[in-house]
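User: Last request for today: this protein with WQD, please.
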Amino acid sequence: MTTVLLTGAAGYIASHTWLALQRAGYRVVGVDNFANSSPVVLERLAELASAPIEFERADVCDSAMLDEVFVSYRPAAVVHFAAYKAVGESVSQPLAYYRNNLGGLVNTCEAMKRHGCLRMVFSSSATVYGAPEQLPLREDAPTSATNPYGATKLMGEQILRDLGVADPAWQTACLRYFNPVGAHESGRIGEDPRGTPNNLMPYVAQVAVGRRDKLSVFGSDYPTPDGTGVRDYIHVTDLAEGHVAALRRLLDTPGSLTVNLGTGRGYSVLELVRAYEAASGRNVPYELVARRPGDVAACFADPALARELLGWEARLDLARMCEDSWRWQQLNPHGFN
Ligand code: NAD
Ligand code: WQD
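Assistant: Here's the final one, the structure of the complex with WQD:
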């Protein structure tokens, strides 16, 4: 059985990917330092997998801990999720982001090299496209960083490309996620942001459940059909399957790749609000306010390359994203705690 190491394993996207990898027949071992997650996730994963799970509490910046994990489990590949991800926080605390996201990546790659494990699937982001000049976004579109978080993803991709140049035995898959939303269909795991949610769907979910009074819609004068921002929302379960497909490709086929994981379809903020109201049967009061600095009008993927290289495409629609988010929100009104 092929063993896969997940870093940041207790996080939102990793926890869903964990289940998808197990279902696909991989042995999964997870590490996380719980910087932005709860150990309760592990209990839920064991329950959903109907089996004990293998996990070590470790910081990916800690080489000695990583060595122990590699010696104990001998993974054939790493799926590297561990990172900080709040754009605004990255502007106020750039050093913490560079240390954790880039230091953690370099450290993980060094441990991989020491232990002869040269395959990595890396969590990149559509944020690397900066302000898109043309839509839909193809992988060969220009890239740029508009904040330190985005810079860590751009640089992370560069580090992996450089590794492949230095030693073609390295095989890496940079997956550029668009806007991951939704939750596992069981309602047992999902996104559990700390404090005020930065992202749209978790905020809408908290308004629908009554934890917050109303949504602030950031900008209603964008050059989009209804004036609000348009994004490519992708169900986290589809995203998880994208990782399985990428890993399979690295194990089966020589070479490295960089692909978008999106649906190819954009929805506006108001369309998402309406879909959420329909899925939840609740009102989502909102007010139109000023644009959020740094936001772009519209962003959505050309998903053709992922289909071609990975045989993967997103299946679940916006209604399903909202239904699954709502089930998670209702069953866990205060997240994991
Ligand atoms: P998340 O915060 O839920 O998951 C990240 C996990 O990494 C957390 O469990 C956290 O505790 C852990 N972690 C952070 N630093 C660590 C360290 N030094 N050592 C060990 N564990 C550490 O975030 P997520 O939304 O699941 O994102 C996963 C990855 O996908 C991140 O790399 C993120 O940048 C990327 N990404 C996320 C989105 C999104 O909108 N959610 C979009 C594009 C890319
Ligand atoms: C979506 C739309 C907002 C909140 C961010 C990161 C990106 C990636 C995904 C990691 C926009 C609007 C939002 C609110 C609103 N993460 N909005 N009211 O900005 O596309 O991407 O998460 O890699 O790097 O920047 O996602 O969910 O924050 O916003 O009106 O309270 O919802 O203006 O149009 P975004 P988002």
